[in-house]
TrEMBL record:
Residues 6-72 form the UPF0033 domain. GO terms for molecular function: transferase activity. This is Sulfurtransferase TusA family protein. It comes from the Bacteria. It comes from Photobacterium lutimaris.
Length: 75
């Protein structure tokens, strides 16, 4: 099953981080969410926040234009 997509390419930090927090906390254990991020600050802050709060992160794409991650809720 394809993960839901959260497109944050038009958002900047701190709004991108706030939207991501809300989205991942709505997940059930084992659910996945694909997040696309372009803002420089959000590219650092969102993965850091997620890893510090027990989410599994799989980097799908990381280039100069976009960071695409798959987030899985572990607990």
């Amino acid at each position: 099953m394809e993960p839901a997509l959260l497109n944050l390419t038009t958002e900047r930090c701190p709004m991108a981080l706030l939207i991501a927090k809300r989205a991942v906390h709505a997940l059930d254990v084992g659910d996945t969410l694909e997040i696309h991020i372009t803002d420089t600050g959000a590219r650092q802050d969102i993965p850091r926040y997620l890893s510090n709060h027990g989410f599994f992160i799989d980097v799908r794409l990381d280039n100069q234009l976009v960071l695409e991650i798959i987030v899985t809720k572990r607990q």
